[in-house]
Here is the input.
Amino acid sequence: MDQTDIIERLKGVSTATITTILLKKGLRNVWMRGPRPMHASQPRLVGPAFTLRFIPAREDLATPDAWSSPRSTRAAIEQMPVGCMVVAGAMGVLDAGIFGDILCARMAKRGVAGLTTDGVVRDVAGVRATALPVWSQGVAAPPSVAGLIFAGWQDPIGCGGVAVYPGDLIVADQDGAVVVPAALAEFVATQGPEQEQLEAWIVSEVERGIPLPGLYPADQATRARYEASLVQSPPDRRDPG
Here is the structure.
């Protein structure tokens, strides 16, 4: 399964399901604390992580002049590939907007899938107008250099208390954002749709009035009934193309 196939499959898997699948693999810390969707209507998005790292501001370096440095957010944006999910580790700082409307507009123009950060954005009306999907902790008027300085891109970072490496897959939906380690992406993309299908069947059983013990989680008898239902009404696996 190539990365394109993995990404397409993960678009149908909720972050809640992904955290459960990864928990079974021993990974407990994959959900980023803080990032929330800017729009309630934002679709689930999946893409390889393009990481940005911010560190605490130091007065001699955190100035507007830093925005013109070769090591700046402006330079990093020009390296972002189409379809990437930008993950900005901003240390949970809530009073310095790391991106505003102009930078978000440029990311949208470059085909970035979305932005996830444990920090905040600014120029919120303009950011919304760019249509770039954003998961953040909110908004703040002051610029990034009021509390942070940009340290670099495409290095391992921490975002919302989670380790993110360039190339990991990021899945973001209404429950927030999770990281899928690159080495486990195919496993999650295989298990995820199957788990979603099983849980949809369980919901239908709940609606029929079936009690939860033995149903959820599914015991052996329940799984046998589920497998039988698949034989009677197999899922449509036709290629939509």
Summary: The radius of gyration is 20 Å. The first helix runs from residue 3 to 10.
